[in-house]
Amino acid sequence: MRTQVCIIGGGPSGLLLSQLLHRAGIDTVVLERRSRAYVLSRIRAGVLEWGSVELLDEAGIGDRMFREGLPHTGTYLSVRNRGFRIDFDDLVGKKVMVFGQTEVTAELYKERDAMDGVVIDEAEGVALHDVDSEKPYVTFTKDGREHRVDCDFIAGCDGFHGPSRKTIPENVRQEFERVYPFGWLGILSETPPVSEELIYANHERGFALCSMRNQNLSRYYVQAPVDDDLEAWSDARFWDELRRRIPESAADSIVTGPSIEKSIAPLRSFVAEPMRWGRLFLVGDAAHIVPPTGAKGLNLALGDVRYLNDALRAFYLDGDDHGVETYSETALERVWKSERFSWQLTTMLHRFPEQSPFDQRMQEADLAYLEESRAAQTSLAENYVGLPFYGRP
Ligand code: FAD
Ligand code: DHB
């Protein structure tokens, strides 16, 4: 089999890249290790920057997002059970959209099918070859048979554990990492959200977040030890813990119900450099991970797709290889800024194991300053709604 761009991974990055390239007349094959049902059942991110919304719209999957998504013009922060609002619209004239990653992926699969895009699922043993030559290729097994895809470029959209990043030799690849000493225990429940907007709460007992997917589907998180046994977290215990950490008015009015999903996610900051080696590009979680505070993971992945789509279009349609040559530097510049924001928000809002009363007061002073200072709020808002691409507003 031959294609122009072989895409490894059928998560949001891989599917969106395939969809955008196809619309420009560039041929792709997507190889996904899991079944489609598995990919579509994953509950992950919930908040889209407006740049992500626009890119998804450009890819032709805007209809349901605009119909069902919830535009948010601000968010609440809370400290010592008292909330205050950051007004994105007033501060930076922008908003975000609550529309789950699960829905984004479902829409992308639907469009890929409608355009007869080639997405091969349950592809086992995917391996990259001759990546630093002009003629790279990818091999995999499907239904017990060996297959080979010859291509011009490989896009590694295969998440943190995929094979693409590891193909870059160790003497070329640099990795930067921080692992946080706690996790997020999250639940999904078919109840109306406690607040029209998200609430990010700092509390002595640990961080909490009130989020949502739609008017009758809520997503809540509490900071918890990453190795805690899920069995020890009954729904009743989760709701009690959440209520203790959020603003009193929210705790009083929250509607609780049975959880329909419950899991603990680790928190990590990670960046691999470079994001291009020869004819291989790394995209999304394959190259970088952020802790979830601030909802940057999916948005950063979609940002890489924007840069790579621009670069490959210029290469194929205009014979211009500048974007391909500079992809890594261009993408990493924005990646590091989002890493900084996610790390800073995580540090300001969580309870660290060795945290002293002094450290707690510092966090509270940070939040008090944020409540009073329009300059500090503007900085948060600018980052939360999404930094510009190519360094331009
Ligand atoms: P992925 O979504 O990881 O997609 C990679 C794809 O590659 C997967 O489908 C995988 O099956 C496939 N793959 C892997 N190995 C192979 C292989 N060998 N061969 C072929 N295919 C392969 N972000 C937020 O902003 N907010 C959140 O609340 C949030 N929650 C998260 C919870 C969890 C448990 C995780 C893991 C992530 C969460 N994220 C969150 C991060 C966000 O979901 C990711 O940043 C986003 O999914 C990145 O998209 P991606 O397409 O780059 O990678
Ligand atoms: C969600 C997750 C986040 O990490 C965040 O900052 C906001 C919302 C969510 O899953 O809804």
TrEMBL record:
Sequence ranges assigned to domain FAD-binding in this UniProt record: 2-342
GO terms under biological process: benzoate catabolic process
Domain of life: Bacteria
Pfam families documented for this protein: FAD_binding_3
Keyword RNA-binding: no
Keyword Flavoprotein: yes
Gene3D superfamilies (alphabetical): D-Amino Acid Oxidase, subunit A, domain 2, FAD/NAD(P)-binding domain
EC number: 1.14.13.2
Enzyme class: oxidoreductase
GO molecular function annotation: 4-hydroxybenzoate 3-monooxygenase activity; FAD binding
Keywords: FAD, Flavoprotein, Monooxygenase, Oxidoreductase
Name of this chain's protein: 4-hydroxybenzoate 3-monooxygenase
Organism: Roseivivax halodurans JCM 10272
